[in-house]
Design brief:
By secondary structure, this protein is of the alpha/beta class. The protein has a domain at 2-170 and 204-227: Rossmann fold (3-Layer(aba) Sandwich), CATH 3.40.50. Helices cover 43% and strands 17% of the residues. The strands form 5 sheets. A 7-stranded parallel β-sheet has the order 3-2-1-4-5-7-12, sandwiched between helices. The radius of gyration is 19 Å and the shape is globular. The protein starts with a strand and ends with a helix. Bound molecules: NADP nicotinamide-adenine-dinucleotide phosphate. NADP nicotinamide-adenine-dinucleotide phosphate binds at residues 6-7, 9-13, 30, 32, 36, 51-53, 71-73, 76-77, 96, 115, 117, 144, 167, 169-170, 175-176.
C-alpha cells in the first residue's frame, strides 16, 4: 500500500515507518527539516518536507496515498505544560489534523488512521476500560485528544473513513521512558507521584508498530483499537521494575502538587491517573499478539538496547 505518515520523525512514527517498510509498504514520511528528512530516508521511507500548520506543498503528496496515518504530536515530551497551555496545543493539533483531513479529501485515500493515547479515556481507577469508553482526556491526552470531537466532525464532514488507535504508554529507547524514567533514575530525580497505586497500561514500541501493521492488513474502517500489553501495572510497581533492572533502589514518593509545580500539571496528571485497559478487541479482531505481554522482559530488553547491560547494572 501507499502510506502517508505524519510524525514520521517522532518516537512512535519512526517505528511505524520502519515496520511498514519492512513488510513492503511504500511510506512517505512528513519531516519538518532536511536533517529529519534524512532520518526518514535512512529508515526506508520517502521524505516529504512540510509543516502540518502550513497546508502546502506537502498536501499534494497525500493525494495518491491509499492510507494516511496521523502520528504527530503538538508538544514534546520534555516540555513542562500547564493545563492552560495543553488547551492551546489541542487547538494546534486539531488544526494540524484538520489540514491533513483536507489534504486527504477527494483523493484515493481509503482511511485516515488517527493516533491517540489511552489516557484519552480519562481516569478509570481500578476499572477495566476498553474501546467503548467515553472520551475524557487527562494528562498527555489533553493536547492530542482535547479537540477529539472537532477532529471527528471534520473527518465525518469530509466523508473520510477513520480508524482510531489508542496506544498505551509506549516504552522503548526514547521518549518519556528514557527522559523521565531511565535518565531520572540515573540522576536520582525520578519520583513516584502520589501513592503510586494507579494503573498504567503499557506497550513495547515494537509491539505497537506490529499493531499498526495489522491494522493496515485488515483495514477495519470505522473502528477503534486499544494497543496495550495484557498486564497493566501500577505506577509504583513499574518504577520498581525499572529501578530493579538498573540495579537501583526504588525512588521516593512525591506529593502531586509539588510534582506539578516543578514538572507541570499535564505530566503530574498523566502519571497519577489510573487507566487499566483491555487489549481483547485487538487480539480478537486484529490477531494482535504482543511479544511482550507484560513489561518485565520488555523493560529488560529495552535497557539492554540502551546500553545498560546486566553487568553494568549493579555498578
Ligand atoms: N510516546 C508515547 O508513549 C505515546 C503513547 C501513546 C500514544 N502516543 C501518541 O503517538 C503520537 C506521537 O507521539 P510521539 O511520542 O511519537 O511524539 P514525538 O516523538 O514528539 O513526535 C512528534 C512528531 O510530530 C511532528 N510534528 C510536530 N509538529 C508538527 C508540525 N507542525 N508539522 C509536522 N510535523 C509535526 C514532530 O516533528 P519534529 O520532529 O520536526 O518536531 C515529530 O515527528 C501522539 O499522538 C501521541 O499521543 C505516544
Amino acid at each position: 500500500m501507499k502510506v502517508f505518515l505524519t510524525g514520521a520523525t517522532g518516537f512512535v512514527g519512526l517505528s511505524i515507518l520502519k515496520e511498514l517498510v519492512s513488510v513492503g509498504h511504500t511510506v512517505k514520511g512528513l519531516a519538518q527539516d532536511t536533517a529529519k528528512a534524512e532520518a526518514v530516508r535512512s529508515a526506508g521511507g520517502i521524505p516529504v518536507l512540510g509543516d502540518l500548520l502550513v497546508p502546502a506543498p506537502w498536501s499534494e503528496s497525500v493525494k495518491d496515498s491509499d492510507v494516511v496515518i496521523s502520528a504527530s504530536s503538538p508538544f514534546h515530551i520534555t516540555e513542562r505544560l500547564s493545563l492552560h497551555e495543553a488547551e492551546r496545543r489541542a487547538e494546534a493539533h486539531a488544526e494540524m489534523v484538520g489540514n491533513l483531513i483536507h489534504a486527504s479529501t477527494n483523493a484515493h485515500v481509503q482511511a485516515l488512521i488517527l493516533t491517540y493515547h489511552v489516557t484519552a479515556f480519562g481516569n478509570q481507577g481500578d476499572h477495566w476500560a476498553s474501546e467503548v469508553r467515553m472520551i475524557d482526556p487527562v494528562g498527555l491526552s489533553r493536547p492530542t485528544a482535547g479537540k477529539y470531537w472537532d477532529i471527528e466532525r471534520a473527518a465525518r464532514r469530509a466523508g473520510l473513513p477513520t480508524i482510531e488507535v489508542f496506544p498505551g504508554w509506549v516504552y522503548g529507547p526514547g521518549s518519556w521512558f528514557k527522559h523521565y524514567v531511565v535518565d531520572g533514575l540515573k540522576a536520582g530525580t525520578a519520583r513516584i507521584v502520589g501513592a503510586g497505586n494507579n494503573y498504567k497500561s503499557l506497550i513495547h514500541i515494537d509491539d505497537l508498530a506490529a499493531g499498526f501493521r495489522l491494522i493496515l492488513d485488515k483495514m477495519p474502517v470505522g473502528e477503534r483499537f486499544c494497543l496495550v500489553d495484557s498486564t497493566p501495572i501500577m505506577q509504583n510497581e513499574f518504577i520498581k521494575v525499572v529501578a530493579g533492572e538498573m540495579g537501583l533502589t526504588t525512588p521516593d514518593h512525591i506529593d502531586y502538587t509539588r510534582f506539578a509545580d516543578t514538572m507541570g500539571e499535564v505530566l503530574a496528571e498523566a502519571l497519577s491517573s489510573s487507566v487499566r485497559v483491555s487489549n481483547a478487541k485487538a487480539i480478537n479482531e486484529l490477531g494482535f499478539k504482543p511479544k511482550y505481554d507484560n513489561c518485565r522482559q520488555g523493560v529488560a530488553d529495552v535497557l539492554q538496547e540502551m546500553g545498560i547491560r546486566i553487568s553494568e547494572k549493579a555498578a
